[in-house]
Each structure stands twice: as structure tokens, then as C-alpha cells.
Amino acid sequence: MLQPGDRAPPFELPDADLEVVALEQFVGRCAVVLYFYPKDDTPGCTIEAVEFSERLDDFQQAGATVLGVSRDDVDSHGCFRDRHGLAVRLLSDVDLDAARAYGVTQEKPVATPDGVVRTRTAVQRSSFLIDRTGIVRIALYGVGARGHAADMLDRVRELLQPR
Fold first, then answer.
1. Distance CA 15, CA 12 (A)
2. Which domains, and CATH codes, for the chain?
3. How would you classify residue 52: left for phi > 0, otherwise alpha for psi between -120 and 50, otherwise beta?
4. Which residue stretches of 64-130 are H helix?
5. Which of 13, 45, 66, 99 is catalytic?
6. What is the four-CA torsion angle of 84, 90, 43, 109, rounded to 10 degrees?
């Protein structure tokens, strides 16, 4: 698990428009709110993405961009974005490389229809604030969906806004 003060692991992931997004694009320019979520179009993930989208201008005014990451592919992200009018940029981490680097994966037992229990890798809903130098300032694991965007915005303002 990452801790505040750690260097943020680099990533290069495609977004819903097939543009590759890399953490290094933002270093020196702005902070990044990077949130990981389990799956497109599920109730909690939709609530979270809508709430981040509704506050996107506020995050930008506070000096941060917002990126959402899940293991869904770019086509799924495009449909999810368009269906719900999302403004937040969604990144595809199909191989879970970024999720593993940020420590947000967990193994969960799943019973198959024939009763066999197998494990599958799941993504734990988590968020990070990475400052413009590439350092993790906030690392939150296992967060709830509803109200999380507003909480992150408050934290971003507290840490990034001059006093």
C-alpha cells in the first residue's frame, strides 16, 4: 500500500478515446486525483463517476485533474461515459498493472455455478492525490462511493490551496 510521501508509480493507460495518458504528462503542471473503481455501469461506480464529473471544474480550479481507472476496456469506458454524461477521464487498466502498482487489488473467493470456489482479482475502490512533483499526498483505500468526490475535493483544497 502506498503512503503519503511515496513517489507515485508511473502509468501509461488508454482512455475511452484511445489516447494514452501517462502520469508524467501532469508532473510540473497540476496535481492528479487518481481514483480506482471496480467496474463500469455498476450502481456505486456510476454514483462515484457522476459525482467526480459534477465537481470536475472545482477540482481544476483547485489545481487538480481527475482520472478514473478500472479494468474495463476502452469501449466499455466510452459507453459508460456517454450513457451517463461523464466528464471525468476514464482510463483502462485491463491487465491491472497500475492497480497492482498502487496496491488496490485484492483476491476474492468466487463460487462458480458448479460450486467450485475460485479466486479472482478485484479492484478495491481507492483514491490518491498526487502532487505536481509526483508525490502521493493522500492515499485512501476501501472508500465508499457516495460522497467520496466531495470529500476528495475538500482534501485537495486543504492541501493545494494557498493559505
1. 10
2. 12-160 (3.40.30.10)
3. alpha
4. 74-84, 97-101
5. 45
6. 160
> Can you give the pTM of this predicted structure?
0.91
Say whether 45 is catalytic: yes
How many CB atoms within 10 Å of residue 68? Answer: 25
Judge contact between 101 and 9, C-beta under 8 A.
yes
- Tens-level pLDDT at each residue, the chain (163 residues): 899 999 999 999 999 999 999 999 999 999 999 999 999 999 999 999 999 999 999 999 999 999 999 999 999 999 999 999 999 999 999 999 999 999 999 988 888 888 888 888 989 999 999 999 999 999 999 999 999 999 999 999 998 876 5
Counting every residue, how long is the chain?
163
